[in-house]
Design goal:
The chain is an alpha/beta fold and 497 residues long. It contains 19 helices and 19 strands.
Length: 497
């Protein structure tokens, strides 16, 4: 037990004798006038005497509450079983002091702990005064809403809570630094997507898969490249209400963005300058996350600015942009602080360089980060045909071992290829199975994760009937468009002949 404000120890004795019986102990905090007055020294003697009569299972912190609580926090960090089951806050009656006592004590409260704020109904001062604990207690209740069950009734003198959230001490000392910095400090993974209206459906499936398999705190940034209000609401609804460790935020493009000039895929370069973090995991929306991303998030980049996986289609690049190890830009672990040091050069290259390549922004990123990127396992970017095709060219033979591991144990599937491929590709017997996305008019037949993608989408709230109610109409419309394109192409060939 922990008591803030012990005075002569009567309540501490009651707690020891009635709650703890023969087990348990109490930590008592009181400043005792810092032993500078006879009254303070007398109270200290009485507390020690009374606690000794109760069995002596107690320790006394003769300090003001904040330094005493900080001392307790440091002690509990190295305790075999840190935290308290019962906390009684009855120290200063100032609102700000009460709030601070509650904050620090809450860090020490185990899940299920009973926390009592005394004097919530105190009548010596006006209840709306900053000299009344009620304002501090009420502010605490608002901040921690959803983390407790209230046990006391309306109008009762004490505010009694039972904690329903996990304990997070939030301070590190000594060896604890190496045992969970992010968890203890409340840090988490930052994940970014950039999408326009055409990619809302794959985005909701990707985010839902991410949240369903990942642990720890995750902040998701969605760079808005032209989303309707309806789409924004649909995306927001993916995150379950009350899930405090998951946050989703929309970010708008700046006026001078590359995406506004060149298209939504260029937003992965734009976001480098305005994501409010120093490190971010960028994911294309056409991804399906199968394993907890914490392993990927914690990857040591070895001083490099970027982490990426080799491009399965062009492991050694292609002639138009020059040969050399070439990465896929659909999954990027970015050290934003390091990248920002050379961001002007990257944007200059994006606006005026590498015009000869066919993969546009991916080519720009490869040229800019040549020799400055850390290779991630292909399991974290299992791309297109690489997840199921057995054919190996000379370049793919260089990554044969990685390909086998990727196919056997993918952590993140990336549906590369066009959404709606040309009919010529779909019907060509020499390019089977063709690369495409499950949500396109032709589907992705033969892809081992096509059905898994649809199964995931059907688990997204509000999207359960998308395939039968919306997709069939979309499929019919896009099939007709594809047929018109192929007819036009055939007429052009005949005209030239």
């Amino acid at each position: 037990m922990l008591e803030i404000g012990s005075w002569e120890g009567r309540s501490a004795v009651f707690l020891l004798t009635e709650l703890c019986k023969t087990e348990g102990e109490i930590v008592c905090i009181d400043h005792f006038d810092l032993m500078r007055t006879q009254a303070g020294r007398d109270r200290y003697s009485k507390v020690k005497h009374n606690l000794a009569l109760a069995g002596g299972r107690a320790s006394i912190k003769d300090k003001f509450s904040v330094p005493a609580l900080m001392e307790v926090l440091i002690e509990e960090m190295s305790a075999a079983e840190p935290g308290f089951d019962w906390i009684y806050v009855d120290g200063s009656h100032e609102a700000d002091d009460t709030f601070l006592d509650g904050e620090l004590a809450w860090r020490l409260a185990r899940k299920g702990a009973v926390v009592i704020f005394d004097d919530h109904g105190w009548d010596t001062q006006p209840k709306d005064s900053r000299h009344h604990p009620k304002r501090g207690i009420d502010a605490f209740l608002v901040l921690h809403e959803g983390e407790y069950q209230r046990l006391s009734g309306e109008g009762e003198y004490q505010m009694i809570l039972q904690k329903t959230s996990d304990m997070r001490i939030g301070f590190l000392v000594g060896d604890a630094v190496s045992e969970g910095l992010e968890r203890a400090l409340g840090y988490g993974a930052n994940v970014a997507y950039s999408v326009d209206e055409s990619y809302v459906t794959p985005l909701v499936a990707s985010i839902h898969s991410l949240l369903s398999v990942s642990t720890g705190r995750i902040t998701i940034y969605v760079v808005n490249c032209g989303l309707s209000e309806e789409s924004r609401r649909a995306i927001v609804n993916i995150v379950p209400s009350g899930k405090e460790d998951m946050t989703l935020t929309f970010l708008d493009l700046p006026a001078d963005s590359l995406a506004k000039e060149k298209g939504a895929t260029w937003a992965r370069i734009d976001l480098i300058s305005f994501i409010p973090a120093e490190r971010v995991l960028y994911l294309d929306a056409d991804t399906l996350i199968l394993k907890d991303i914490q392993e990927l998030w914690k990857t040591d980049l070895g001083g490099k600015a970027l982490g990426a996986a080799v491009d399965v289609g062009h492991p050694q690049g292609y002639e138009a942009i020059g040969r050399g190890v070439y990465f896929n830009a659909g999954v990027l672990l970015m050290d934003l602080a390091k990248i920002r040091c050379r961001l002007p050069q990257l944007k200059h290259l994006a606006r005026g360089g590498v015009q000869r390549g066919k993969f546009e922004d991916q080519d720009v990123l490869n040229e800019h980060f040549r020799g400055e990127w850390h290779e991630l396992p292909l399991t974290w970017n299992a791309q297109g045909l690489g997840t199921y095709a057995d054919g190996l060219g000379a370049d793919r033979a260089l990554i044969a071992v990685q390909l086998e591991e990727m196919k056997a144990n993918p952590a993140l599937v990336h549906f590369t290829g066009p959404t709606n491929p040309d009919v010529e590709i779909v019907l060509n017997p020499w390019v089977q199975p063709y690369t495409a996305k499950p949500w396109g008019y032709a589907g992705a037949p033969g892809h081992p994760f096509s059905s898994a993608w649809w199964a995931r989408l059907e688990r997204v709230p509000g999207w359960e009937n998308y395939k039968s109610h919306v997709f069939e109409k979309y499929k019919k419309r896009e099939t007709e468009k594809a047929m018109e394109r192929v007819k036009g192409n055939f007429k052009n060939v005949l005209a030239v002949a």
